[in-house]
């Protein structure tokens, strides 16, 4: 048991700590505590006094010390409340008329609760403000005209302004805190916060969030000038957001620069050493964030394990000077509820004797995150009479020292590398830093060392496009499946569209003469969507052939492993050949191998599925596989990928239009998508979609828009020229509105164009397009999709249709109503 008595009063505690110190030092400590408004039992303050560190800091850095202990400083609290108040005032002026009634009701209900708290004595509010709040009570706002509503909102604005006047005085008092004995009146701050609590200003709490404008836009939920700026900035951010990409895509930054094994080994050593320094610094920064202040290391007398206990000053025992001189402690690990500022799930407790001699459990600190990772710790574990070592916490100076160490390490590498070898070593460092490290590696990481060492070499490589070699995958499933490219130079374009395996994601597609070649491999460099270039395309070597029956074209056999035999380099384009099969039993416990011969030479090995199919057909007529001969048409099987090499000088980057509608004309945007369906329903479905496009123009006119803009988000295989012709015809016919066709775009990019409340997505519902519908719906966009099988519409995020305006099926076909 640890016999440490808890202190009786803060004054006694400070007096105990100052015992034995000079009168001059005691006077300076007390003056300092008074000037900072410190409580006498502030744990960090007591630790610094007891260890002598306060004396050193008072001598060397008094201003820094004073800033450190401005813990009771309420400048930030008051300033934030003033910002919130002003934002609420401003939105009263910019709020749409349609929202004012509901807004006023919400405020009124809230202020009724504020009045109730005032009447209960829980809030101290000046009589002048109370009289104004009473005029905003729920009973006084029922059945108001628009003019009366505006008067009430003006009164609310007057209440908010009066609060700002009071808060301005308190802010000045808070700012003068270190020079004055005055402190802000907490009752004023409290009632001002209570009045504005009817609504949270989202950007106020989100402005310091590192996620804002990094991984997402900033939160906004009002009409203040800052809200309106945030909303416009969010639109730009969402369209141009930079997303993390696998580092392998950037590996080939030094094409043509050769380096040897010695360079590679040196690069690996530099990478390891530099990353180690960065890792140490990041660990210290993390500990400084969640485990600031002094900590103790307790060593188990039985196992020798060292356990770190952190955040000592956050718990009561730290206020006791006897705690800081303990050399042994018996601790027990217990579970705790993690918080945002202290995410530790385990704590250490010690049994103390209080002033009455009773034994109580008290928490001394949290078990460090490092110790939790290092050992398999569980609640209930204990250390008896473990040796205690006290350590100072992480300081900014320690972190700065590691930053300096990393900087000096980089300088030493640069200075020790001959000028002639720097380009090769830079290329080697970049290569090893942009290489996949393991099978389970996600590909998303930073390769800081490649940019820290020899940055001038990196910059020189950026003078022209280096990432010009790419691999296109999935070619066997797309529109050039049966074409064998042999380094032909052709114009290509990069477009974003729905991912072939996940309709909720986008993939970068390579388009050749309007047809899909495939998608870029995740490890290949990616040029921007919309880029055009001349590229040399080379299909992968074929490893399989397809033999098609002359009698029944649906009967096909696949011959694999052809690259290992006599006809490995031969290309086949439907020639008629005579094939003979030979069954070989190579291993007793495995199925026999069926080899295909052509002109007494091995063509390849018959695919297992083809063997099963052929066996079934032959068994039906009493024939055997061995020695079976047949005539068929021979073709190369579609290959799964193609390699492309781009002519860097031919690349045309997409034009980024800024201020497209600078004349402030009202623009409605309509995304549309078509789909291939059953041939019996195709004609009617195409007609309905054309009518829907017409209806979209009528809808834009009805709602007061000057321009309607169409964007095609159909899958590549489903794009229809009929839709474009309909839009072009509408552009010619309609004189009361401008009709634009903006071309095709990826669904992800196109969704960002929907900014107006009347913007909509229309199209055809089918198994292929359900991903488009779900994606648009999940982004809370209005969508109407025609279902050919039922003649009805899938409607999402649209107002419900009243019974008296439901259209019959023939009306839908005629006018495209949705």
UniProtKB/TrEMBL annotation:
**Superkingdom, according to UniProt?**
Bacteria
Return the Pfam families for the record. Answer: DUF6753
Cross-referenced InterPro entries, in alphabetical order? DUF6753 (IPR046641)
Name the record gives this protein: Uncharacterized protein
